[in-house]
Amino acid sequence: MSAAPGLFVTFEGGEGAGKSTQIRLLAAALRERGLTVLMTREPGGSKGAEAVRHVLLSGAAEPYGIRMEAVLFAAARSDHVEQVIRPALAAGTVVLCDRFMDSSRVYQGITGNLEQPFIEALERVAINGVVPDCTIIFDLPAAIGLERARKRSSGSGESAEPDRFEKEELETHEKRREAFLDIAEREPLRCRVVDATETQEVIAAQVLSLVETLLPITAEGRPEQVS
Ligand code: TYD
Predict the structure, then answer these.
(1) How do residues 140-193 score in pLDDT, each as one tens digit?
(2) Ligand 1 centre from 99 Cα, in Å?
(3) Which of 108, 128, 180, 210 could hold 112 in an S-S bridge, CB 3.0 to 4.6 Å?
């Protein structure tokens, strides 16, 4: 498990699943309980990793192929782990991270078609023993997630039949959904699946109760002193 005494929680899932809202709500609830919380994200989260984020998300690395992109995601992850996550956990912080190693398994490994030993080797080097204590997977039919994302970006609220490109996208997103669920099935101790079609309030309550079971909290709502 992660570098105790902190708690390392990662959040995974497809587009339009509401991860970032839920991370903010959880962080606020945990801070109210007197805990020190760090919200972070990937790719990025440290100075070096944010520089690599720009290269990845701008599409600048795309011409060099999926293998190059996978290595860059791993480079960013390594910097993020060593510069930010590991020290925060060692200081007793609750670290909430928007996407982590499972996104590489799914986006580069499954829908990127990279061979598993390559992905596994990169993961090992990048996380260097810092495995999430808990990974919350936001599960949503791809069509609903894409619709939400489309509404958000167009602001129109109108629903149209998906065109050829969107259909292709839909298949890819559905494949990613299955891949996340597959990880959850294979690693039930680390992963929890949340139904992201529920209301924000229901999801927030579920996420908080999941994380609370992992925290040493007293009745007064303060972290217990570990002697
Ligand atoms: P971001 O704008 O942070 O999106 P989201 O709100 O979907 O989390 O973009 C991150 C993108 O990078 C997202 O499309 C998933 C992708 N990604 C990978 O392909 N591999 C990875 O290892 C990570 C961390 C992210």
Answers:
(1) 999 998 888 878 777 655 555 666 556 668 999 999 999 999 999 999 999 999
(2) 7
(3) 108
Domains of the chain, earliest start first: 7-212 (3.40.50.300)
- From the alpha carbon of 104, which atom of ligand 1 is closest? 22
Average pLDDT taken over every residue of the chain = 90
Residue 113 Cα to chain centre, angstroms: 20
Residues within a 6 A CB radius of ligand 1: 15, 41-43, 57, 73, 98-99, 103-104, 107-108
Residue 198 corresponds to which amino acid?
E
- CB within 8 A of 42, min separation 6: which ones? 49, 73, 76, 77, 80, 97, 98, 99, 100, 103
Categorise residue 177: left if φ over 0, alpha if ψ from -120 to 50, beta otherwise: alpha
Q: How many angstroms separate the CA atoms of 69 and 218, rounded?
A: 44
Give the position, in ligand 1's atom list, of the atom nearest the Cα of 56.
Answer: 12
Which residue is it, tokens 């069509």? Answer: 143
Ligand 1: residue whose CA is nearest its atom 17: 103
Q: Which atom of ligand 1 is nearest to the CA of 99?
A: 24
